[in-house]
Records
---
Amino acid sequence: MVEERGRIGSSFEDYLREQGTLEATTAAAVKRVIAWQLREAMATERLSKNQMAKRMNMSRSQLDRILDPNNDRIQLATLMGAAEALGRRLRIELV
């Protein structure tokens, strides 16, 4: 019979909290997921970056900053506009 083991040590979130980096790490992870989802939606719609930029009334370099997973300084209104350009909605919730 296999014995089930409980948790050993603290969670990764606890570790990040202790290091003082939980908020920054979470923000970076959220931005990476949103950038990935935007790229996936663009691929599904077969939209090039130039076409997407035109839909959003911005330059391609501005769109590149939105799609950059490492750039976490994008305004909420900009993300909402990107979602709208793809016929989608941006949903953010508190958990």
---
Amino acid sequence: MLGTAFATVRRCGRGAKIGPLVADSIDDASALLMAIAAAFPADPFIIDVPDDQPELTALCKGWGMQASFNTARMYRGPAPEPGPGIRSIATLELG
């Protein structure tokens, strides 16, 4: 049984961009990504995964996805502790 999960997907210059993706578990995230891939079968898709989501990174790599660039997340003061669940970044384009 799936928990709570949602994602936004939009067409971009090449394929489709996913983000945000929020899920209770890696199984929920996987089911959601499979549904997105089925909805956009001919398109490559892009997802920005933060470093504190190693399960999502492993899932994407298991599907043959590869990193195209890295970015640094910087905080003023201590970095917040990651919350429960699986998350991707909504968009890097908006900062």
---
Amino acid sequence: MNLLPEAQLIWSPTVANSRMNRERNVSGVNSYEQEFKFKPEAYLAAKIATYGQASWLDLCCGRGNALIQTARHFEHQGQQHLLQLTGIDLVDGFQPIDKNLTCVEFVSSSLLDWMPTQSYDLITCVHGLHYLGDKLKVIETSIAALNPSGRFVANLDLNNLVIQGTNTSAYLKKSFKQLGIAYHARRKVLERVGGLAIKFDLQYLGADDHSGPNYTGQDAVTSHYSG
């Protein structure tokens, strides 16, 4: 098996051809609400009501539809000045931001190079982890970037991780439980409330971009580790 390092993985056809989150809406049909069973705009409204402001970081945001729709929602409420919305994606294919929407920023970058400079109330990654190499590093970085009451939620298929010499699924589920991370196995959704510096203490070996489709029916990347 030829495991790719990050510098080569980003050029893989499996990663480059990913369309899982390009056009997803914030709520309703084909939405973040459907994936994660809550409305991001309602969650952010509650944060504004409690703290007077709110921030959302969307990893692998695609064209950024969900963030644009959320910005418009809060603009109509006269509250976008209380909101900060940031989207990161490897491909600079973001939809244009209307001049009247001042709370949205898009960044084209690899998540493995991402180093947050602030904390967030909400961090999401809809199907993006399927196409990343060191998935656990991104999870570590995301959880560390949460506010004390912030929420991280992401799709994760445990079949796309391999830890040599161990039962990967059992190992990760035990680690998640110890770290206060909920894993909803049926929906394949990972969730954590509250920022925390965590470390999985595994060595990343590289990624297999030929492992085939996962539960989404789309080709995914399998990440390999050693203990």
